[in-house]
Amino acid sequence: MDKLLIRGGRPLRGEIRISGAKNAALPELCAALLTPETMTLRNIPRLQDVATMLKLIRNMGATAEFSPDGTVVIESRELHFPEAPYEMVKTMRAAVLALGPLLARFGEATVSLPGGCAIGARPVDQHIKGLEKMGAEIVIEHGYMIAKLPKGWTRLKGANIRTDMITVTGTENFMMAAALAEGETVLENAAMEPEITDLGEMLNAMGAKVTGHGTSEIRIQGVEKLHGATHKVVSDRIECGTFLCAVAATGGDVLLKDGRAEHLEAVIDLLKAAGAEVQAVEGGIRVRSEGRLEAQSFKTTEYPGFPTDMQAQFMALNCIAEGDSKITETIFENRFMHVSELMRMGARIDVDGKVAITHGVERLSGAIVMATDLRASASLVIAGLVADGETMVDRIYHLDRGYEQMEAKLRELGADIERVK
Ligand code: EPZ
After folding, report:
1. Residues 210, 296 within the same domain
2. pLDDT for position 90
3. Which residues of the chain have pLDDT under 50?
4. Which residue's alpha carbon is at the smallest distance from atom 35 of ligand 1?
5. Which residue, judged by its Cα, is nearest atom 26 of ligand 1?
6. Is 30 a catalytic residue?
7. 274 and 207 assigned to the same domain
8. Are residues 170 and 319 in the same domain?
9. Is residue 211 domain-shared with residue 249, that is, in the same domain?
10. Do residues 252 and 227 both lie within one domain?
11. pLDDT for 116
């Protein structure tokens, strides 16, 4: 099991490129199944979750070539196994995104229910309810969702869908299912993340008729078929935000190429309030920081609010900042597992349900800590970069799920970090 060994105390300087967004690549790899024609996706990041999704697609009978420059070419003419088996879904909840495309293209889909994961139960009841509104008949047997069209139907039917809460992958499943449905679908409380906007752009490049993507109301006029296209995946705002927090914490001066400041307004506003300098520049974002920052309180909410996927990283920054902060996690029920690990490094944090209070300390001290989930791992890396002495982050397979070559990028910026077996 790989570990990361970090010797803290160095500022970060230089420039790195932000990779393509994991949370855009995963739905877009599934969207490629909506057409039998060749799909070319560029700027796909080399991540464990992407490898899992490619394995899933190949298992269905599609071919998918992943070249070193980050281009994936998918042919799904011979898709003959519209299934997402448990052993592939259990490690990656995003496999639920196969449901919409398989139903839309083949009229049937058998997708394993995702188990829970470290940060919460992660139910998919909203996905099921929305697809049932479009006519799908879905039964749950032996841990699988078995979906098919009613007798005599050849396509799903457009519907008005309002989910009980805003759901990112739910919105994405409905967009993909609706693209080939008969008639119009209106998503009334759609998620507005940049990855949703990017998926809408890709579907339209394939001949779909999607409008309103990026707002809370998305309209999709179903079409008979979609054709092949080329699409470049949007850059990863969470990877970018993670590096912004790292530089803010360690001090330094870094250019994040391909970073999109307009996708990180809530995070950037908070970093500026803390005392870091963050500005959009030609082709990226420049971040500078020196001296101690001031802790900032925040509440995670759906986009464009402060993203839950940035909560752990900003908490690490607050732990060594001046003063106290109140952090409220409103999206997931168990997303404070990094707290006990940060406290092993000397952080002072009090958790009460969905609220964590941090009390800033001058220094953290390096320790052996354990990653528990993807963004918690990133939080521990940031803490290790600023702590006195050595930090060993264990179980970094969590990190590898969502960050492309994080230690190489950090070394590029002058960090003393290495991967050990
Ligand atoms: C997406 O997960 C992201 N994953 C998550 O990123 C991200 O944290 C999350 O959105 C919130 O922004 C991908 O895009 C692959 P939701 P998703 O459906 O779609 C509840 C990361 O670190 N809910 O928006 O699974 C759910 O339990 C990952 O990259 C239901 O109750 O999240 C949660 O409390 C972690 N029933 C809330 O809604 C449902 O059917 C939001 O979940 C669906 C969701």
Report:
1. no
2. 84
3. none
4. 309
5. 122
6. no
7. no
8. no
9. no
10. no
11. 67
Q: Are residues 242 and 198 in the same domain?
A: no
Phi, psi of 140 (to 5 degrees): -110, 120
Range of the domain at 42: 22-232
Nearest ligand 1 atom to the CA of 119 is 35
**Which atom of ligand 1 is nearest the CA belonging to 49?**
15
The domain that holds 360 is classified in CATH as 3.65.10.10
Whole-model pTM: value is 0.97
Q: Confirm or deny that 126 is annotated as ligand binding.
A: yes
Query: What is the pLDDT, as a whole number, of residue 119?
Result: 76
Q: What is the tens place of the pLDDT at every residue in 164-199?
A: 999 999 999 999 999 999 999 999 999 999 999 999
Domains identified in the chain, total number: 2
Q: Is 26 in the pocket of ligand 1 (CB under 6 A)?
A: yes
* Boundary of a domain, candidates 217, 232, 247: 232
What is the atom index within ligand 1 of the atom nearest the CA of 375?
A: 22
Say if residue 7 is in the same domain as residue 56: no
Nearest CA to ligand 1 atom 13: 23
Looking at the structure, tell me whether residues 82 and 199 fall in a common domain: yes
| End-of-domain residue from the set 232, 248, 276 | 232
Per-residue confidence (pLDDT) for residue 133, from 0 to 100: 98
